[in-house]
């Protein structure tokens, strides 16, 4: 059997005050998760613990994302997280505060014939 992509979901999240890149990343993941229902898993009798879940987060400061918190936020599957440069920081006028925007892509793969 071969590992095949069965779903791709995307989401966006932000932290409007505080410049918390992990908070923005978690919100992006939740946004992506709330756009889908993996009903096919039960319908096909697949084991959700064997699901491969690949999360890619894009933010301007990847080193400031707690990848373990992002991984722990996924409810099922064998989860891997990669954080890359992307997203957007929007400075607040007259303040040292930025709105942080993160994007997330979640790929689900299964071993299928």
Structural account:
- The chain is of the alpha+beta class and 113 residues long.
- It is built from 3 helices and 5 strands; from the N terminus they run βααβαβββ.
- The radius of gyration is 16 Å and the shape is elongated.
- The model has no long low-confidence stretch (mean pLDDT 91).
Q: How would you concisely characterize the structure shown here?
A:
With 113 residues, the protein is α+β, with helices and mostly antiparallel strands. It contains three helices and five strands, in the order E-H-H-E-H-E-E-E.
Q: Give the amount of beta strand, in percent.
A: 35-45%
Q: How many helical stretches?
A: 3
| Largest pleated sheet | 5 strands, mixed
Give the helix level as a range of percent: 10-25%
Number of strands: 5
Provide key terms for this protein.
elongated; 113 residues; 5-stranded mixed sheet; 43% strand; alpha+beta
Write the layout of secondary structure elements.
Layout (H helix, E strand, L loop, with lengths): L1 E14 L5 H13 L5 H5 L8 E8 L7 H6 L5 E8 L2 E4 L6 E15 L1
Parallel strand pairs: 2-3
Antiparallel strand pairs: 1-5, 2-5, 4-5
């Amino acid at each position: 059997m071969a590992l095949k992509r069965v779903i791709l979901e995307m989401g966006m999240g932000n932290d409007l005050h505080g410049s918390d890149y992990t908070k923005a990343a978690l919100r992006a993941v939740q946004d992506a998760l709330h756009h889908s229902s993996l009903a096919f898993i039960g319908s096909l009798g697949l084991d959700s613990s064997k699901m491969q879940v690949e999360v890619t987060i894009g933010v301007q400061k990847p080193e400031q994302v707690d990848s373990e918190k992002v991984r722990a936020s996924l409810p099922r599957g064998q989860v891997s997280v990669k954080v890359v440069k992307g997203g957007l920081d929007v400075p607040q006028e007259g303040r040292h505060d930025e709105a942080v925007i993160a994007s997330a892509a979640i790929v689900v793969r299964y071993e299928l014939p």
